C-alpha cells in the first residue's frame, strides 16, 4: 500500500514538472526606444502637442486680457456694458476650455493621432511577441515595466532583444 501511494505521488510530481509553464519577460520601453519609427512618431506628437498647447494658451491669455481690461474699466462701465464684457470673458474662457478638450481630451485630436501613429507599431510588437511565444513554447510573457510585483527577474528570461530581432531591429 505504501509503495502504491509513493508511486502515485511520484507520478503526480513528475507530471507536474513536465507541465511546468514557461515564462519570459519583455521590456516594452526598451523595445520601443530601439524602434526608429516609434521615436519619430513621438517627436511628431510632441511637436503637434506643443503647437496646440500654444493655441490654447493664446486663447486663455486673451481671456485674461479681457478680464484685466474689464477690471480696469469697471468703475466707468454701465450695468449693460458690465454684463456684455462679463459675457465676452466667459465665452472666451469657454472657447479655451473647448479647444483644450478638442485637442487634449480623452477622445481628442492628440489621442487620435497617437492611436494612428503608435498603434501599428504596438500591433507589430504584439505579433512578434506572439510568434516568439508560439515558437519557443512560452505560456506567459510579462512586460517588465507594467508588472509592478516583479522584484527581480533573471536576465536569461528577458526576450526583448529577440523581439527586436524578429521586427528587424537587431541589437
Please render the helix and strand layout as text.
Blueprint: H1 2-18, E1 23-26, H2 28-33, H3 36-73, H4 79-104, H5 109-136, E2 140-143, H6 160-167
Parallel strand pairs: 1-2
Helix pairs in contact: 3-4, 3-5, 5-6
Detailed description of the structure:
The protein is mainly alpha-helical and 171 residues long. The protein has one domain (21-167). The protein contains six helices and two strands. The chain has helices at 2-18, 28-33, 36-73, 79-104, 109-136, 160-167; strands at residues 23-26, 140-143. A two-stranded parallel sheet has the order 1-2. Helix 3 (36-73) runs antiparallel to helix 5. The chain is elongated and about 100 Å long. The mean pLDDT is 86.
Q: Can you tag this structure with a few keywords?
A:
single chain; 171 residues; mainly alpha; two-stranded parallel sheet; 6 helices; 5% strand; elongated
Tell me the Rg in angstroms: 29 Å
Count of DSSP-assigned helices: 6
Q: For the terminal residues, how far apart are their CA atoms?
A: 58 Å
Q: Biggest β-sheet, characterized?
A: 2 strands, parallel
Percentage of β-strand residues: under 5%
- Class from secondary-structure proportions: mainly alpha
**Count of discrete structural domains:** 1
> How does the overall form come out from the CA principal axes?
elongated
> Segments where pLDDT lies below 50 for 5+ residues?
none
Relative helix content: over 70%
Strand arrangement across the biggest beta sheet:
1-2
What is the typical, i.e. mean, pLDDT? 86
